[in-house]
Amino acid sequence: MAEGQSPLEELKAGSRLLRGEIAKELKDPSPSFSKDSVQLLKHHGIYQQDDRDARKVARAEGRSGKHYIMMVRTRVPGGRMTAEQLLAELALADRWGNGTLRLTTRQSIQHHGVLKGDLRDLIRGIHEADLTTLAACGDVVRNVMCCPAPFASPLHRQIGQLCEELAEHFKPRTPAYREIWLEDAATGERHSVSGGEEEPIYGRAYLPRKFKIAVGFCHDNCIDLYTHDLGFLAVVRDESIVGYNVLVGGGQGVTPSRKDTFPALGKKMAFVTPEEAVQVAEAIVAVQRDHGNRADRKRARLKYLIHDWGLDKFREEVEKRLGRALWGPWDDDVFEVDDHIGWHPQGDGRWFYGLNIENGRIADRDPVRLKSAIEAICRELTPGVRLTAHQSLLFTDLDDRQCQELMSILKAHYVPTSESISEARRWSMACVAWPTCGLAITESERALPGVLDELEVELAKLGLQREAFTIRMTGCPNGCARPYNSDIGIVGKARDKYTLLVGGQRLGKRLNFIHREMVPRDEIVSTLVPLFVFFKAEREEGETFGDFCHRQGNDRLLQFADDYRHGRVS
Ligand code: SRM
Ligand code: SF4
Question: Per-residue confidence at 189, pLDDT binned at 50, 70, 90?
């Protein structure tokens, strides 16, 4: 291992293609894994965590020690799955997890609260449902995202196909996953790397950092294309995809103590034909593999390589790998976004229904029995299922009779329909944060519903309840709910205090800016109210909240807020 590289590089390279000591440690009765295994396990889709609520109680009672639990993530390329698969995941959550499922911002599914001793059973169950946790996390290409709308159109078929090809192409080839989790004899032996085994794309040390890919449309940027390491934006002519604009170097995470870290939007680099897309993706991943920063994980994402090199040099390096020049990108760009919530005709005589799942959490909580409702829908109607990039679900392929049955099931289980929730809630997302996320500084999933309750009242008073804007909350600056390009971003900064950002867009093509720092949770809404008052008074025709804030700039927003608070606004 080259000098100056992060210790994780040595660990990955020496892990015999991600085997490490995981199998041996699985046999050990201890409730947790070693530090090294914790890192390798991520590539298998597993995070070791501890219940931070339980930790707090224990500390208050003078007890030390952690209650170890695991998070297990199933990756679902393009969010496309079946009712049987969702039922299987729900049953597994009851059996081995905490009885809930968490739909993620990247069209995946998470189990929380899994005990170490139950991991093999859970992962086998997921495998039996023809799903996998391999490469859901770790320094590899993560779940490939794609617009999930099931329209019966060649365009949707085409992007779905590219998404599947990319997911298959970048799947790690290591046999470690099968050996450790799926083979009958729970292995404790040291499997060595046999002659034929290799990772043709990743190599022994895998990538310097996680790598995210998405495929989307100009007329529907529902997968937030500009936030990915690599985005394919379909270029459509005469109802057919003639190629893709290739966007590179998007990403959200920031480390506030490191001024050389930042969120970035993807940059348009090239145009590729559908036939070239996978090959170009491989060349881009290979450049990041060979030149990405392996010394400093805080600056290891593709966005930093592109920032440090400049786009021209990066493109030249990709061209060298390809052995030919790339075409420049076409003018086509994103211009609309659809969350696919509510009822839509598919174009083949059937319907799909987008059910808004608040912050992606599928649970039964009195009186709303969401989990039971989803189980009943899957069992009784066997619809197609799609996961959205907004932590929600689409039920697809429904005929007229099934549409009515679906609504009856939701009603019988007291599930708020997508039609009954506010625009603000519909377009909101919160990351998981407490109590499972080890990096959380503040609450997020458990805090946002209350913030929205308050905000809804204020918006209604101002007559702005029909405004559509994105509001995204995270428990730390890592940006898991993509808060940095939303109309309103609420980012955990210190205990129960948040950074408030405004000025992004639903369309996702512009970064927002910091409006105020260190806003206590119970002052988030009162800090936003003056901005909405200003918006209502001085917006231009059709202007969105984010566009308005962007046009005014923070100095004017702060000035107005100050005037408002001191009663200087009539
Ligand atoms: Fe994330 C780390 C949850 C999407 C940026 N993210 C984590 C971990 C695994 C915490 C950890 O490292 O210990 C969180 C697990 C919490 C828990 O208890 O479940 C976590 N991230 C999530 C999910 C579940 C949020 C959600 O509420 O849906 C999303 C799972 C996606 C998936 O299915 O694969 C999730 N994470 C994202 C996104 C959004 C996206 O990809 O579209 C981002 C911002 C985009 C990006 O990557 O730049 C994101 N997560 C991060 C980062 C910062 C990365 C960086 O480059 O700085 C971390 C921390 C890290 O990697 O060191 C992180
Ligand atoms: Fe955890 Fe931070 Fe991601 Fe939220 S944004 S899930 S707190 S890492």
Answer: low
